[in-house]
Task: inverse folding
């Protein structure tokens, strides 16, 4: 592939009426791959994720993460004049994405079914918490609530205490299914000439990610136990303290690996064939004894020594890194994954998106927009005069 070739979504226009994480993170994936993304926000403060925190040099970390590379149009959709502007944009758009509260888009005529009937080539995405029908359709849905409803919290944490995931797993799951759904619908449009609706719910997305514990429970009749950093059905598979205060996680996937661990890491070859340890079933039954043996050895080594010994034996292992250690991870540095993106607060570090297109152009990593930064330019491109723009701004329809 020649480096001068465009990114795969170059030339596509996406209009998004979005907020929080699920829709913004989905459309950021499209922007990274070359699509033009027009983010429609309320004039009075915009996407409420802008105000979550001020950790990114005065900007909200969620917003910086999920909204780079977009154009911000501050538009009041409850005013007919604002809705008219949106439809002028949709007339030339390829994709529309919304994650308004359930029923809000339909009241504005912006649900996927209505828009696809009006614009046959449009791919229109509805992202909701629980889906359009059923008893939960109008229930408020935030990430942590959906993590609870989907059972993720019930399998995360320690035996004594369930905990939520440390990232917005329900939002991210919905975002990535919305992203892949858009790509699939665009491929179908290339064959049929028609777009069509795409429906994504946070609950159904996260329920799919619950595949292992769900199938284990449905077909085995028992929910996997919460085991902290340990694995519910494999031992040893846990994080162990080292002499220098760090923790190293190791995973023994089969009995051959246990033999290597016993001989080369624990330096206790007799454990390789000991019936109390020789099989995974035995090690899991005697998890406390197994962990005690491993912990006793690793606790006398530094983290560097433990990792070196484990890797020499071919045992999968990892350091239990902090977020700051992730930011300075040598693998990310060696692979040149960090870039800078513009923002109203100046340049900010950001990771290249994980989808690589070797031999082609690098992903677009545009600036994080200020609220309404592109309003005037977008309206002028639609043929609106400066006098009309000033009138709408004076009436609070735009910002």
Result:
């Amino acid at each position: 592939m020649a480096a001068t070739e465009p990114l795969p979504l170059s030339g596509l226009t996406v209009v998004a009426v979005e907020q929080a994480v699920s829709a913004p993170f989905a459309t950021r994936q499209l922007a990274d791959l070359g699509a033009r993304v027009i983010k429609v926000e309320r004039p009075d403060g915009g996407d409420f994720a802008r105000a979550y925190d001020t950790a990114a040099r005065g900007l909200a970390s969620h917003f910086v993460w999920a909204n780079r590379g977009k154009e911000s149009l501050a538009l009041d959709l409850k005013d007919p004049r604002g809705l008219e502007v949106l439809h002028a944009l949709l007339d030339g758009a390829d994709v529309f994405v919304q994650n308004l509260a359930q029923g809000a888009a339909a009241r504005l005529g912006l649900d996927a079914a209505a828009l696809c009937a009006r614009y046959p080539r449009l791919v229109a995405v509805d992202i909701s918490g629980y889906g359009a029908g059923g008893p939960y359709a109008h229930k408020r849905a935030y990430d942590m609530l959906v993590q609870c409803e989907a059972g993720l919290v019930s399998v995360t944490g320690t035996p004594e205490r369930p905990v939520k995931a440390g990232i917005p797993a329900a939002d991210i799951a919905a975002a990535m299914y919305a992203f892949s759904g858009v790509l699939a619908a665009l491929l179908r449009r290339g064959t049929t000439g028609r777009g069509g609706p795409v429906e994504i719910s946070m609950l159904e997305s996260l329920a799919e990610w619950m595949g292992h514990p769900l199938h284990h429970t449905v077909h085995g009749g028992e929910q996997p136990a919460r085991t902290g950093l340990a694995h519910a059905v494999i031992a040893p598979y846990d994080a162990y303290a080292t002499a220098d205060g760090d923790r190293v996680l190791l995973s023994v996937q089969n009995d051959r690996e246990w033999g290597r661990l016993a001989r080369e890491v624990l330096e206790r070859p007799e454990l390789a064939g000991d019936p109390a340890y020789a099989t995974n079933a035995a090690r899991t039954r005697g998890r406390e004894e197994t962990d005690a043996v491993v912990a006793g050895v690793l606790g006398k080594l530094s983290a560097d020594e433990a990792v070196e010994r484990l890797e020499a034996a071919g045992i999968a292992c990892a350091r239990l890194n902090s977020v700051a250690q992730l930011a300075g991870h040598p693998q990310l540095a060696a692979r040149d994954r960090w870039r800078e993106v513009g923002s109203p607060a100046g340049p900010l570090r950001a990771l290249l998106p994980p989808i690589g297109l070797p031999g082609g152009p690098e992903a677009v990593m545009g600036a994080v927009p200020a609220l309404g930064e592109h309003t005037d330019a977008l309206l002028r491109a639609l043929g609106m005069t400066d006098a009309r723009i000033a009138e709408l701004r004076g009436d609070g329809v735009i910002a």
About this structure: Residues 169-192 form the longest helix (24 residues). The chain has a mean pLDDT of 96. Residues 81 and 207 are 40 Å apart (CA to CA).
